[in-house]
Amino acid sequence: MATSHKLHADELDIDEALVRRMVAECFPQWAGLPVEPVEPAGTSNAMYRLGAELVVRVPRIPGVVEEIAKEDVWLRRLAPRLPVPVPVPLAVGGPVDGCPWPWSVLRWLDGTTPVPGRIAEPGALARDLADFVTAMRGIDPAGAPAAYRSESLASRDARTRTSIAAVADLVDAPAATAAWERALAAPAPDGPPVWLHGDLQPGNLLVSPDGRLSAVIDFGCAGLGEPAVDLIPAWYVLPAAARETFREAAAPDDAAWDRARGWALSVALMEVSYYRDSDPRMTAIARHVIAEVLADHA
User: With contact defined as beta carbons under 8 Å apart, do 147 and 261 qualify?
Assistant: First the structure.
């Protein structure tokens, strides 16, 4: 019986048997559908395919439980305004024995996660990503929640420097510090907060066989924040040759681009520090990002 590989100390025990029981108890109309884990596994939520057209999303840790309700409300409003499909919840299940919190059932979206360094159509994907980012930040912010990464870049300074020290055996710490300090020196944003996805990493993007963006998933971090946060796919996803295409299409000013580089670096450093002993895939992606940022900065 497949069980989600544990990444966190406070993680729920989730396996196929539990998911079948959850579905049977809350949604008997789907009880006969096959259940199988989705790979690669998410870091905050476990995903299980439910038949051919559905997917069950279960929070792995208490800290992301509130995202279920947030997505249930806001994805219905965001979806019609975005250029690619997003996972609008079809139903939200309540607590059952073995799962003490809400969970959701969503429509399955086809596509594969992009692999940094092996992007089929980097220029086209860069434009698709810029279109998505532009559409997000153009949505009316009235009543929207704060994004998970709604803080200022400067407020991440201590944690980022701690992460640099913690992974100094894996990265060029002096170069990382220099790149981080350049980002900190960039002027702060002078406009109002805008809608963000908040976590445009490879695992939250789906591409079609022709290399185009086909869907964006996992809006748990979404909300209002500064626009530079959603520019991180420039280093998380795209090769250097397509980075300028993305920049031209997304049209940030120089200060926002410098802050975006800092956001990508800070997030990746914290990921390496946190996941280095538990998740080789996340660690490899984050180390790739750090290398891209440092090369770009140099």
Answer: no
Q: Which amino acid, residue 77? A: R
- Report strand pairing: 89-93 vs 103-107: antiparallel
Q: Which amino acid is at 133?
A: V
Contacts of 143 (CB under 8 A, 6+ apart): none
pLDDT digits over 251-286, tens only?
A: 999 999 999 999 999 999 999 999 998 889 899 999
* In contact, 122 and 242? CB cutoff 8 Å: yes
CA-wise closest residue to 246 among 139, 121, 122: 122
15-35 burial, b for 16+ CB within 10 Å, e for fewer?
bbebbbbbbeebbeebeebeb
Number of neighbouring beta carbons within 10 Å of residue 184: 17
- Residue 223 phi/psi, 5-degree rounding, is 150, -160
The two structure tokens encoding residue 237: 């996803």
- pLDDT 10s digits, 167-222: 999 999 999 999 999 999 999 999 999 999 999 999 999 999 999 999 999 999 99
* Sign for the pseudo-dihedral over CA of 59, 3, 93, 52: positive
Confirm if 108 and 52 have CB atoms less than 8 A apart: yes
- The amino acid occupying position 224 is L
Q: Coil, strand, or helix at residue 189?
A: coil
CA distance 161 to 182: 13
Instruction: Determine the Cα angle at 47 with ends 43 and 49, to 5°.
Output: 155
pLDDT digits (tens, 9 = 90+) for 214-244: 999 999 999 999 999 999 999 999 999 999 9
**Which is nearest to 262 in space by CA: 205, 177, 202?**
177
pTM value is 0.92
Determine if the peptide bond prior to 40 is cis (ω within 30°).
Answer: yes
Q: What is the pLDDT of residue 3?
A: 47
User: If we measure between CA atoms, which residue out of 30, 3, 7, 2 comes closest to residue 283?
Assistant: 7
DSSP 104-127: EEEE----B---TT--SSHHHHHH
